[in-house]
Each structure stands twice: as C-alpha cells, then as structure tokens.
Amino acid sequence: MAEFDVDLAAARIAEQAERAGREAAARFERSGPVVGKASSDAIEVEVAPGGLLTSVTIHRSALRHGSSVIADQILELAQRATRRAGDKMYHALAPVVDASQLEVLGYEPIPDDDPDADTYSYGR
Predict the structure, then answer these.
(1) pLDDT tens over the chain, length 124 residues
(2) Separation CA 120–CA 19 (nearest Å)
(3) Measured between alpha carbons, how far is 120 from 28 in angstroms, rounded to an integer?
(4) CA-CA 20 to 30 A from 23: which of 15, 60, 80, 90?
(5) What's this model's pTM, rounded to 2 decimal places?
(6) By three-state DSSP, how is residue 106 classified?
(7) d(CA 85, CA 123)
(8) Which H or E run includes 27?
(9) CA 67 to CA 82: how far, in whole Å?
C-alpha cells in the first residue's frame, strides 16, 4: 500500500487556493466591484453578490402608486439584480474556481436570451 503524505497534499491544496485567490483578486481589480443592477421607469436598485441591497432610488413618479406596489417592484428588481450579480461573479471567477462550486454558492450564468441578461459582458 502506498503511503500518503498528508503534509504534501495540504501544501499543494494551500498553494492552489493561494493561486486562485491571487488570480481572482487580479480579475476583480481589473473589473471593479461586482454589483447587479435593475431598474424600472421609476425605481432603480443595486445589489452586491448574494442580494444585499446597496442602493435603492425611487423617483417621484413612483410615489403615485401605493407603498405595497413600490415594495413589490423593489423586491422584483432586487431579485433580477441578484441574478445579474450572480452571473457577473460566475463569469469573473469561472476561470479560477470550478463551476460546480460557483453554483453551490448561488453564482450561475444567465443565458443570453434570458430577459435578466445584461446587455454587456463582464470579464468574458
């Protein structure tokens, strides 16, 4: 039975993780912050990957609708922006992280024909 060198295996894994981290950091440095945005005629939202709202802008024209309509629109836009942020993270990290790991984290690509797909590419 062959011996397994745990220390060597751990060192290789650490080296791979460090290399992937450096490559990901370089990609983010070139691209800037990863955010997802979505808007309607009267409301704009921006989210960080994972869906944390970082900005909500409500224009005056939205105020003629009731608060429940505005809340529903914000939630719908936040979901769309979250998908977009996940798509951007996926494409930014796909060269350095296995696709299955990205999908476990909730970062999935959006098909080009999907209405939530942005009109620009990110890190592609």
Answers:
(1) 668 888 888 898 888 888 888 888 888 788 778 899 999 989 999 999 999 999 999 999 998 988 999 999 999 999 999 999 999 889 888 888 888 888 888 889 998 888 888 754 444 4
(2) 28
(3) 17
(4) 80
(5) 0.76
(6) coil
(7) 13
(8) helix 6-31
(9) 22
